[in-house]
Amino acid sequence: SYHTGPHTYAAPHSSNQPLAVIGGVAVGVLCATLAIAVAPSSLYGATTQAPSATMVAGSAPVSNVPSAASFRTAVTPMQAAQGVQVPTMLLQGSQSASSLPMQLGLSALMMFIGGAIYQFFRPAHQPLPVPAPFSIVVPSAERTVRLVTGMADARTSVAMLAVSSEKKKVVGIKSPVFNETCDQTGITLTRFMLEVARANPDLQELESVFASIQTACKTIAKLVKRSSIDGMTGLQAGGGAVNVQGEEQKKLDVITNDVLKRALKFTGRMGVIASEEEDVPVEVDNTMDESYGKDVVVEESGGRYISVFDPLDGSSNVDAGIPVGTIFGIFAEDEDCKLSDSFFDDNKDISEAMKGCLRSTLKPGTSLVAAGYALYSSATHFVFTLGAGVNGFTLDESIGEFILTHPNIKIPPRGKIYSINEANRNNWDAPMQEYIEGLATGHNRGKKAYTSRYIGSMVGDVHRTLLYGGVFGYPADTKNKNGKLRLLYEAAPMSFLVEQAGGKSTTGLVRVMDIPPKDVHQRVPLVMGGSDEIDELVELYQK
Known about the structure:
It is built from 13 helices and 20 strands.
């Protein structure tokens, strides 16, 4: 915004000016009127005597009423000496003519006096000061990727976006506006991201990443729905297949990981991919086919983004038809190494290429550019954030498109549901036990008892928390001292979503988004929910 500040000045005090003008004119007019009114009685008093008739010896009587001829005949001195009567009107006319200069002089004098009075009362002239030049203050922009959507009317959604990288200043982004929608499809995720890219050509690469992610999620939704029919339930290879965390892999774990990994790789925008099902991050080869260089001019941008994901969260429940989901996070590639060389002192066998992958991947949640999840349940939901708001889409299977159904999701400061595995209650630390007990009994700031709802699938529980409010948690206990959820591809992306929806996420001691990962599969305690609810928990840990 611009702040303008011209110098202010006090206008000359002009309350006496009308009085001075009126007074000067009034005095001048009054004096002139008096002069005119008095002059006839004094100057013409001698001529106003009207004798009826005057007899002159040897002549006939002469009337005092002049005839027309008397005005045209001059009276000579001889006639006057002989006693000839001079017409009264001629005498009056000659005397009036002689007094006219005196009347004009008196009027001029009176006007002069009025003008002098006006000049006496009029304030001294004060020239208006010249305003100083406006000063313009341009506030510094935030370093975020922002996307805000809202409904302008029943069928028109407006999206507002701003983007930056860690090495560049914020660039203003034109907001894509949807002035027209199809009554049958609404606003699809495909069109939503295309409009963003059309309004902002710099985001075309991110649009292609989201296009691939949504394609992978549609494929996984189909695989989950048909898993029992197509024989994809049960353990991988009949059992014995274990991932790096010591967890037995389901068939769908392996299949969905391959689907999402290939979809991201095919975008040509990924530099590194890290997954729950992969032991280490994988560097993506973005080399183009040789024919592209011969026949087609193509600008190769290389891998601009790093993707981390859990391809099938809650897969242990998939055989029972319990809701499961996919969690993903997107980081921007940059040359600013987050890890020092001493980080690799205990890992002498790590190759230089792997060191580069780890440097790109091990970033705190505050470096996320985008994050989201897909929920495979009674419907398939796709919820994501680009850094300023959370938007939810629902898959319309009849047309194969995600439709905007939940724009600008917000978590209330307090809800009425807590979602946690209470079987571990006796293994929690004292602050957590006191906190959950307060929610269950109503001895909390909200003064109301909460209801317990726990699915056991993080995506399902967090999705309900986003829509209904409340608390979700998987805290540390005596069996899992560091918690159970993975920081890089579960806790950080979900915390990003919750915070962008107005909530908070903590381990009890620190904000989850601020924790720098030390390992791709590092685990952390996690409790997230409404802002008031999490503040209450943090205070219990600070006692």
